[in-house]
Amino acid sequence: MIVSESMKSEQISKISEATEPALRPFDGYLVEVAVRSERGSSIVQVFIDTDQGVTADQCALVSRQLSTELDRLNIIPGRYRIEVSSPGLERPLKLPRQFTKNIGRQIKIVSRVENGTAISSGILKEVSPSSLTIATKEKEVLTFALDGIQEAFVVPQFK
To answer: Which fold has domain 5-85?
Structure first.
């Protein structure tokens, strides 16, 4: 079955709504939902987080509750598998709450500028609802509007 982009967008929206109640007991939040096809079935990827990080038990709880809800609502036609996990370091930061959680850590930012993109990195110092501030190695303090950030990643630090 071929799924159009608008159908996929509607599926993701419904899956997002169905996930929210399972997150409330531990003050979790939804970071991203992705649906992809693999060998005739669908894979529903749900990335969740909390301000303290996510446990395997929390992922399992959300997976069970979401599976029950998706079956009840019949959102995904045919066979599907649910994968619930934390975003991990390889996934970009998307939400202000994720940035706040990472204050004090090294981040890399790809921002939109007039003639393309610029890459900056530094220690995340401050986050507001509309911007963030980093301090670079060169002791510069840079502020970025959140809506001007194309991608942002935590840079792993190995000691």
So the answer is: GMP Synthetase; Chain A, domain 3 (3.30.300)
